Amino acid sequence: MILTLWQKKQAALLYYFSSLSYLQGLKDRVIALRVFSEGLLDTNQSKGRDRILKSKRWGSRNTGENWENNAWPFLGDLQRSIAQSIADHRSNIYRVTGAYQCARGMAEFSMQWTDPEEQDQFDRMFKELYDYAQNIDDTMDRAVLSTRWSDFDLTLAWQSYQVNFPVLPKFEAMPKIVCESNELPPKTGVYVSIDDPYASLQFAWNGDARGKVLAGTTFNNLGRAALTSVGRAKLWTDGEAMLRFVLDNLSSPDLRQDSFFEESQTPELAPSLVARNAFKPNPSRWCFVELIKDEFEEITAEAHVEPTEFLRFDAGAYCSQAGFYFSPAAGNSRRYYRIGEQFDNLHSDYGNTIWQWDVDQAKKP
Fold first, then answer.
1. Least confident of 14-23, 149-158, 225-234, 263-272
2. Cα dihedral 214, 219, 222, 227 in deg (nearest 10)
3. CA distance 18 to 59
């Protein structure tokens, strides 16, 4: 199995976000925020701000004392959770960080005891910490049916972290190390779908029962149409190209059902509009992707080639690749569809009408 350039980039990100060094980077950020917060509390005490903030109506709700007693412990809990994750790393046990719970808990307590510049700095540091932790959570979360990493999210992550990869680590798909969705992997690491070239890669582990391989997050018909229309190089990152795709598909029910359909018809919001409606879960067989230690390769441009043999469309969907299709829902159903043409509903007793790309594209008599 040959990995595409984009699959190699996904593998690089997932191995990076699951690494011990990345986890230790989160620990360093929590410690830095705790040290900064201690300084704020010392400043608050030395300036006697709490005396002014206490009131008959609100009591000590807005004081630094209240924040220290109730909000501060959430940062301590987060630090201890990360320390446990670091200790468990060598045993192939992984978990989410607890940053979400920390944020929810601390948001309940006032920081009016700080001045605006102090709170702005605290907010900036916590947001940077939270965004950093989110990459671990998206990689490790098993409270969902399919991996939280979509093609859209991984593309944005690559835009942010590609500076860390002047060259790509070398990877090799290992066809003898395979498993299926909802199984513990035979080996801890990154897995690529054998059955679905559109499915995002995922990280799974075998140190405890939570590490099972999930269903893939893959393109639905809208997502495949966007990929074909815009191309891999511009998908999600070129707002103008994504907007043109939206405007060309205004009648698409997948887009029109979006609660923010009208407001999102701008270059800035069109990528997220499509992304919110472009994916579906898909159970699959998975192949282990091995990271080759101390070997690298240059990042070179790669033209996107649509894997047409995997094209499947539901009735009513818009054709994104012109050619001959057939449906198992009826015999002699083979016919030619043009780009933008809707696939027919055959209303068969067989079940839902699914149109599949015919590998034999020769025009038959």
1. 225-234
2. 160
3. 45
Which residue in this structure is represented by tokens 């939270």?
Answer: 130
Contacts of 287 (CB under 8 A, 6+ apart): 1, 173, 174, 175, 177, 178, 191, 192, 193, 194
- Rounded CA Rg of the chain: 25
The 10s digit of each residue's pLDDT in 7-55 is 999 999 999 999 999 999 999 999 999 999 999 999 999 999 999 888 8
Return d(Cα 304, Cα 270) in angstroms, integer: 21
Two tokens, residue 164: 């860390």
**Would you kindly state where each structural domain of the chain is located, as residue ranges?**
16-140, 221-277, 308-365
Predicted TM-score of the model (pTM): 0.82
Contact criterion met (CB below 8 Å) for 346 and 327: yes
d(CA 105, CA 98): 11
Joined tokens for residue 82: 């990360």
